[in-house]
Amino acid sequence: MKKPSVIYLDNAASSWPKPDETWQAMEHFMRFVGANPGRSGHRLSVEAGRILIEARDALAELFGIDDPLRIVFTRNATESLNLAIHGILKPGDHCITTSMEHNSVMRPLRALEQKGLELTVVPSSPQGELDPQGVEKAIKKNTRLIVTTHASNVVGTLMPVADVGEIARAHGIPFCIDAAQTAGAYLIDVEAMKIDLLAFTGHKSLYGPQGTGGLYLREGLEEKLDPLMRGGTGSRSESQEQPDFMPDKYESGTPNTVGVAGLGAGARFCLAQGVAHIRAKEEGLTRMLIEGLKSISGVTLYGCGDAKRQVAICSFTIHDRSPSEITMELDEKFGIMSRPGLHCAPAAHQTINTSPQGTVRLSPGYFNTEEDIAVALEAVGKIAARSR
């Protein structure tokens, strides 16, 4: 793989570059397959169907899922979360979430709140940490869903998912995880963590293309969860009613097969490299970034400040400089890609006291190097020195 001419530290938005396997799988589909899966009986349609099966198999292996058919393909984690939230919750129900959530969780919940949903937002610490007991204390008789992020997209702090999963399972409440920042980069076992619904996206640490993602549903939840849309599935075509079995109940219309080809290849790349290995490398880069940012005068670093307790995300500000100005200078003068602002998570920024301007977010990935981090730290140091 040819190294990019820029230093890309925006992997929390979309990972880049992608492994060669990803684009090669997509090219193979477009050049040699191209057919609709499950809609025809010819060999190319069968081959397209095989691509979906193999992608489901790889994802199931990554997440400790026994039955790959429990995975529904979607466009992204946002669609997966909307499917879970709108599919389960009804007016009069109670839902628990946290103050560190992305708008992919908060906006669907706030919309349902306007229609009669009762919502409890459990506050996190200014470092983005969650006390599981706060979740347990918020449970009510009408609590129908607990939904939390696995890792903050603002400061990277990992949530105590297994502890909250124990609490949710003990009370018989479905537990939904937003794994947008962890799927592929952090070990996930849905059984061990007692996760009932796992929403993930393909374009971040799974090294797939944009426009891909999925939702895992624990067995039996399809009886409670309504689909977001209905239509042709290639199955039970004699009926005008939506199929009631997995995954067809939630996969209406022609799928993004070329995207899933890339997603499957990305998932297999994660398996081949080993998630533990990917995690170790990203943890090392994050530790280097944390220590470096802490040492720069005028820089304020947010989050827990512990690479072992967060994913590869570091958010910071520089005294008297707006995040957008810093990001522009990092790009134009140093060729470093970062992201400024509120990161589609205003509640999280209110929690860490960086609202309304937000922060600058640096998010290294598996293909970054220690040299990249050193260059980035030198650049931030120069910007901070001119701000004093």
What's this model, at a glance?
The protein contains eleven helices and 13 strands. The chain is an alpha/beta fold and 388 residues long.
The level-1 CATH class of the largest domain: Alpha Beta
Q: Remind me, CATH topology of the largest domain?
A: Aspartate Aminotransferase, domain 2
Termini distance?
40 Å
Order of helices and strands: EHHEHEHEHEHEEEHHEEHEEHEH
The count of β-strands is: 13
Could you say what the CATH architecture of the largest domain is? 3-Layer(aba) Sandwich
Write out the strand line-up for the largest beta sheet, numbering strands in chain order. Answer: 2-8-7-6-5-3-4
Q: Give the C-alpha Rg.
A: 21 Å
CATH superfamily of the largest domain: Type I PLP-dependent aspartate aminotransferase-like (Major domain)
Helical segment count: 11
List the helices and strands and how they pair.
Elements: E1 7-8, H1 20-33, H2 43-63, E2 71-74, H3 77-88, E3 94-98, H4 103-113, E4 118-122, H5 132-138, E5 143-149, H6 161-170, E6 175-178, E7 197-201, E8 213-217, H7 257-273, H8 275-294, E9 299-302, E10 314-318, H9 323-334, E11 336-337, E12 339-341, H10 346-351, E13 359-362, H11 370-387
Parallel strand pairs: 1-11, 3-4, 3-5, 5-6, 6-7
Antiparallel strand pairs: 2-8, 7-8, 9-10, 10-13, 12-13
